[in-house]
Amino acid sequence: MDLVCKVFLLAGLFFFTTATIGFLRFPDFYSRMHATGKGDTLGILLSLIGLAIYHLAEHHFSWPAIVIASKLILIAVFWFLGGPTATHALLRSAFDTGRIPWTKDGRPVIKWPPKEK
Amino acid sequence: MESFFIGIGLALGTLIFICFYRIVFGPTVYDRIISVGFIGTMTVVLLVLMGFIFKRIDMFVDISLMYALLNFVGTLVFAKYFAKNKGAK
């Protein structure tokens, strides 16, 4: 069980690391949000699942250990739903204030404002 | 297993420290908001790891649950606030 926990934690750390690298190196606000919004969610999910498995195996599936492990899974599930929601709200806010996505040749692929209401 | 947790925690701390670059030098205000959210996510994992290291996981799991909720609400509030004032740089 220790090995399973280590594999889950290292996978979570790997996704956090790639999210950080993408966050530092991507050219645009939208692409940076793409890097963190996904690596973030998967990293926290894998790390907390690994820690819950470790805690359950350490205390031989006793009742308090099950409560704590279910709280850890609750955090993971909450962030699995809430993280993309927060990302979407922030992206919507940035789009409505008129930020054009970056392209390689500098020409915008969309027109701003997109449609007259 | 203890030393493994400490190693993972140190790596997460290094990543958090690297992310401060975007808070200080971020070109737009949205970069700063994403950076705060990302640091908050890593802090949730770091708090749980601290609970395992100090052997008080029953206390730290509630703190990290609270931190995740506040982080989510904070990002939503920032998004709403900056959508209203259109001229934010």
Automatic annotation (TrEMBL), chain B:
Name of the molecule in the record: PH regulation protein F
Family, per entry: Belongs to the CPA3 antiporters (TC 2.A.63) subunit F family.
Superkingdom, taxonomy of origin: Bacteria
InterPro entries: MrpF/PhaF-like (IPR007208)
Lineage: Bacteria, Pseudomonadati, Thermodesulfobacteriota, Candidatus Desulfofervidia, Candidatus Desulfofervidales
Keyword presence, Translocase: no
Listed GO MF terms: sodium:proton antiporter activity
A family per Pfam: MrpF_PhaF
